[in-house]
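Technical annex B. To support the medicinal chemistry partners, we prepared a structural model of the target in complex with N-(iminomethyl)-L-glutamic acid, based solely on the information shown next.
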Amino acid sequence: MNLTVRGIGRLLTMTEPALPDAAVVVREGRVAWTGPAAKLPPDAPEQVLDVEGACVVPGFVDAHTHLVFAGVRRDEFVARLAGQPYDGGGIRTTVAATRAASVEDLAALALGRAATALSNGTTTMEIKTGYGLTPDDELRLLDVIAMVGARSPLRIEATYLGAHVVPEGRDRESYVAEVIETLPAAAARGARWCDVFCDRGVFTVDEAHRILSAARDHGLGLRLHAEEIARTGAAALAAELGCASADHLEHVSAEDARAMAAAGVVGVLLPTVTLSLRSQAWGHAAILRDAGVQLALATDCNPGTSWCESMPYAVQLACLAMGLSVDEAFRAATLGAAHSLRLDDVGHLGQGARGDLAVLTAEHEADVVAHLGGRPVLRTIVGGELVN
Ligand code: NIG
Ligand code: FE
């Protein structure tokens, strides 16, 4: 698609300083030109979107979601409000509901969430399996993820998370072996990444090591749920294995953070989880930043710990609760998140990047952070095409 976006009051490309009074030219789905409106090339596409002074940013990259699930976890949520801590056990409730749903029903549910994400400016999304927990049920979820990619404008990265929790009635050793045996089929069914929920009460560092090493042998990229419930050594493992990302990290230590920085592991912050778990663990963002870890933001959209499809909401919490600056939070939600997925053509609007843009409802990105409960995104553009 070819498109000229003009009337941009403030443009954030993430590759250059913010530009006032700007325009963007997208040709064949890619950014062909960005610059001052006064210098718009004479042969710019005739298809024009005038955003009337709005701030425009790269489409958000949601680097961590569990978008495909059925059912709700109302009782668990209400119990948490009454003081019950989260231990990951509720995942099994969602597994039962997800196994009982058809592929078409799961796709319809996930596409509804994808539409909400798009309307909030997300244009690229990572989606994990993890609510199937048998080889067939997990592979079915990869099919649903592929359906979301085919039927929505979102760009999808699929992750195999067979190691989400040991399913009910299963011996853990045989389950870990089964997860490892399923890796080639998962790769063949579209998974590009492998993830493990490595935490207290779920998978151990040793089990995660075995699963991720095997995943790497099968050509999958590595991600890791780390230090969410307790500090178990998962972040250090992510550094040792050179994972692309370690995610959550509420209980990360400064030493872990230094190891992550040295190994180039991106730290994916999930502030809606911290809020939803009521854990009050907000200090890890500063620990990671001080150690020089590249930061990413994501929603972790899931029915247990973060029922949220909105990247702007994650940005707001990252600023207001975790202490990121507006600039750090927008970078984490775009460029940092893209780097956590090792994608170099999204998360910025440099020449040749995909023409994925979010048109904000304000003239400055800080206003979108300050305005709580409002509507942050006016229009979403994917590959030069208006999708919302
Ligand atoms: O990222 N931590 C593991 N998985 C999800 C929660 C999944 C659930 O509780 O259903 C998370 O928080
Ligand atoms: Fe998660």
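Notes passed to the chemistry partners:
The CA atoms of residues 135 and 182 lie 6 Å apart.
The chain has a mean pLDDT of 98.
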